């Protein structure tokens, strides 16, 4: 596994050659998340189409740190689909729906 800034540069180079390279976007998001650079982490994680649970959780957390509740809500919805038996994600999803003005969705998430 590549470390730190060298890894970031390598993944950025790979993405410059192929912007749709999912693994590079996820790994770059992860590297920025580890550095608490939530803005860049969210940017790269938001390009995901995968079902990688850890990455969706990191996107939700990064987005919440940035107070981007719409993106956090969307990530929470994806997590809820991946973990349908996890009551905690439905509580979080309800809270995020409430913050974004989706009261009906908040109520159904709390049930």
Average of the residue pLDDT scores = 91
Q: Encode the helix/strand succession as letters.
A: HHHHHHH
Uncertain stretches of 5 or more adjacent residues: none
Fraction in beta strands: under 5%
Number of strands: 0
Main attributes of the structure:
single chain, 111 residues, mainly alpha
Protein described:
There is one protein chain. Helices cover 75% and strands 0% of the residues. With 111 residues, it is mainly α. Helix 1 runs antiparallel to helix 2 (22-34), helix 2 packs antiparallel against helix 3 and helix 3 packs across helix 4 (53-65).
Topology:
Blueprint (H helix, E strand, L loop, with lengths): L3 H14 L4 H13 L3 H8 L7 H13 L3 H14 L4 H13 L3 H8 L1
Helix pairs in contact: 1-2, 2-3, 2-4, 3-4, 4-5, 5-6, 6-7
Q: Can you give me a brief rundown of this structure?
A:
This protein is 75% helix and 0% strand. With 111 residues, the chain is an all-alpha fold.
């Amino acid at each position: 596994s590549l470390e730190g800034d060298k890894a970031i540069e390598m993944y950025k180079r790979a993405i410059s050659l192929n912007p749709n390279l999912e693994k590079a976007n996820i790994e770059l998001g992860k590297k920025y998340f580890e550095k608490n650079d939530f803005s860049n982490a969210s940017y790269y994680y938001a390009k995901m189409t995968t079902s990688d649970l850890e990455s969706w959780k990191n996107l939700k957390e990064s987005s919440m740190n940035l107070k981007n509740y719409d993106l956090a809500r969307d990530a929470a919805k994806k997590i809820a689909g991946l973990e349908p038996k996890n009551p905690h994600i439905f509580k979080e999803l309800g809270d995020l729906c409430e913050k974004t003005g989706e009261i009906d969705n908040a109520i159904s998430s709390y049930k």
